[in-house]
Write a structure and sequence with these properties.
Blueprint: H1 5-17, H2 22-28, H3 33-45, E1 49-52, E2 56-59, H4 62-74, H5 77-80, E3 86-88, H6 93-103, E4 107-112, E5 115-121, H7 122-130, H8 140-143, E6 145-146, E7 153-154, H9 159-168, E8 173-182, E9 185-195, H10 196-207
Parallel strand pairs: 3-4, 7-8
Antiparallel strand pairs: 1-2, 4-5, 5-6, 8-9
Helix pairs in contact: 2-3
The structure holds adenosine-5'-diphosphate.
Length: 210
C-alpha cells in the first residue's frame, strides 16, 4: 500500500508519542479531527496503527513479527532436532509397526550397514496392513521410500530451510544426516530427526519467551 505524505506524517507522530489521541494528532498537524478521520481509518484498517478506545493510537511494529522470522533463520537444525528412530533393512513390516508404536513416532528411518537407505511412514505401513499379507514375511525395504527420493537436512541446515522442505515436499519429517565419504562413495549417517513436532515445540517455546 502506497501511503500519502500525510499518512506517513501521522505514523511518525504516533510512533514518537504513542499512545496518542486522534485529537492530539490533529492538533500537531494543524488539521481538524474530521479531516484526519479517513486517514486514521485507512491506517487502522491496514493494520499499521492500532486504536484502543479511551487510550489512543499505537503504532503496530511489524519489526516484532519479523524478529520471529530472523530468529528462525538463525537457528540450525542441530538446535532443535530429536533422536532418530531407525530399523535395519531386512527387518519386517511387522517390526516396523512395532517400532512405530514403541517409540511413539510417525516415521522411521531404514538403515543398511549403518547408513540411511529408506524412510517408512505410518501410511506406508498401513497400506500393507490392509491386505491379507503376512506382515512378518514382508521386508521393510519393500515398502519404504528409497534413498534417491529421500528429502533430508544436515545439522547446519537452517530451521527455516527445513520447515520449507517439510511444507514443499508434504512430508511429516526429515532425517538429519551427516555425509560420509567411503571408498569415493557418499553415504548418509542418520544423526537425527526433524519433524512437525519440532516446529510446534519451537513455536511454543518462543511464545513462552524462551
Ligand atoms: P504419512 O503420509 O504416513 O502421514 P508422510 O506425509 O511423512 O507421512 O509420508 C508420505 C510419503 O512420503 C510416504 O510414502 C513416506 O515414505 C514418504 N516420506 C516421508 N518422509 C519423507 C522424506 N523425508 N523424504 C522423502 N519421502 C518421505
Amino acid at each position: 500500500m502506497e501511503l500519502s505524505e500525510r499518512q506517513n506524517k501521522i505514523i511518525e507522530i504516533v510512533r514518537a508519542n504513542q499512545p496518542i489521541t486522534g485529537e492530539d494528532i490533529a492538533q500537531r498537524l494543524s488539521l481538524t479531527r474530521a479531516t484526519l478521520r479517513p486517514d486514521l481509518s485507512i491506517l487502522t484498517m491496514s493494520g499499521l496503527l492500532d486504536a484502543r478506545p479511551r487510550v489512543g493510537y499505537f503504532y503496530v511494529d511489524k519489526g516484532v513479527s519479523n524478529l520471529t522470522g530472523e530468529h528462525i533463520k538463525k537457528l540450525k537444525v542441530a538446535d532443535v532436532k530429536s533422536m532418530p528412530i531407525v530399523i535395519s533393512e531386512g527387518q519386517s513390516v511387522y517390526d516396523g509397526i512395532v517400532t512405530l508404536f514403541l517409540e511413539d513416532v510417525g516415521t522411521i528411518y531404514v538403515v543398511k550397514d549403518g547408513y540411511l537407505s529408506g524412510v517408512v511412514s505410518r501410511k506406508d505401513l498401513l497400506k500393507n496392513a490392509m491386505g491379507k499379507n503376512d506382515l512378518e514375511a514382508i521386508p521393510i525395504d519393500v515398502v519404504m521410500t528409497r534413498l534417491s527420493h529421500i528429502i533430508y537436512v544436515e545439522e547446519h541446515t537452517s530451521v527455516y530451510e527445513a520447515m520449507a522442505k517439510i511444507i514443499n515436499y508434504q512430508v511429516d519429517s526429515l532425517p538429519v544426516v551427516k555425509k560420509v565419504i567411503t571408498d569415493g562413495k557418499e553415504l548418509l549417517e542418520v544423526v537425527g530427526r526433524f519433524s512437525k513436532t519440532n516446529i510446534a515445540k519451537l513455536f511454543l517455546e518462543m511464545a513462552e519467551g524462551k
